[in-house]
């Protein structure tokens, strides 16, 4: 399907646009996925003309797109689609200028991508409406986090919902656009093998780790008000948890998939009051070494308060109160400036009911989302030689090798195309976002009463010592 559209990106000079959105659109253009008539209009306050913006965009695209994928000729044709419009998104009068600049939609889809801070979501939607720019052909894309609490998310959802119907609101969580995340659904729902054992009777516990080596980069202003809980766990990690835990949807479509995910979020057992001391760990990186380089402590990063209490690491024991998952802990952890970049889901199965061999190892399913995309099942096998010496061996599915002739799409490529084509399956519905905040809010409140100071950890290590003690207290350990 190829649809003619105007893609308007608010926050057009920001990191997200320059590092992710434009490179994704460039790839879609290069692969012939965009209708010849798709126009991209970057919007921001900076006083730039079109040439100035294109120079900025090209510099970033060259740096972001893999060397073999960038071609100056392709860039020239791509650049013809791109334009820049300087405006203040909070100024109503600027939208009248924008409307004039755009002219009539004439049946073209209009996508407004809000790559901005959430406090601009409401004014942008209201201003679009008052300038007559929010008609039936208009869609709005909101970047996470939607608000910083349940109340603020409700307010944003209410305000956006007053202008755009839910079917035309796309709340993006780029983790849902990652190939392996979608593969998780294929693994669960296209293979009969797993369903009978995908439940409390057979699964001992689940771990979801999203570790980054990056620090806060130049996003200190945003990050210091968000922290790892709002930036990562409330959205990316909870979405992964939903895909592991949800029931099979009746159909593979937006309504049914999102309906099943929301049931998982609603079944999460609340963590309230001083429960936070037992069930969560918050940490903050100090100075350390990453990849052979010294890196500063979090509170010495640009735009961070020197006495900041913001967490850059969080670990939580989540429990799902339903028939399938009663009694199975889901350990979630995410952090910046960790030892290495990896995102993985580990499903640990229960031990065999009666031990015949000395080694009581268990089966594990390891789903690695990045840096490698792989799925491996750890089984016990007899080592060669006399006696029944058992060792774990891995049944490996390396997805990058299995599909080596096909280029792996970046999450934003897939999601941008979905918005243009009007498919909201991989976007968060309003009730999902609210249910996620509903679970996260009491933890944040518990922290402010009982757990203000995050535990320090040196950059380049796997989080604070307390995160290891916390999981060991439950009789488990983080899978390495
Ligand atoms: C973003 C967060 O949503 O995800 C960033 O705001 C984080 O802080 C990023 O670095 C991680 O994404 P990925 O795709 O690199 O795992």
Automatic annotation (TrEMBL):
Substrates-to-products reaction catalysed: D-glucose 6-phosphate + NADP(+) = 6-phospho-D-glucono-1,5-lactone + NADPH + H(+)
InterPro entries given in the database record: G6P_DH, G6P_DH_AS, G6P_DH_C, G6P_DH_NAD-bd, NAD(P)-bd_dom_sf
Classification via Pfam families: G6PD_C (PF02781), G6PD_N (PF00479)
Binding site for NADP(+): 45, 144
GO CC annotations, alphabetized: cytosol
Ranges in a coiled coil: none
Organism expressing this protein natively: Stutzerimonas stutzeri (strain A1501) (Pseudomonas stutzeri)
DNA-binding found in the keyword field: no
Upper classification of the organism: Bacteria, Pseudomonadati, Pseudomonadota, Gammaproteobacteria, Pseudomonadales
Binding site for substrate: 174, 178, 212, 231, 336, 341
Enzyme active site: 236 (proton acceptor)
Function: Catalyzes the oxidation of glucose 6-phosphate to 6-phosphogluconolactone.
Protein name: Glucose-6-phosphate 1-dehydrogenase
Domain Glucose-6-phosphate dehydrogenase NAD-binding: 9-183
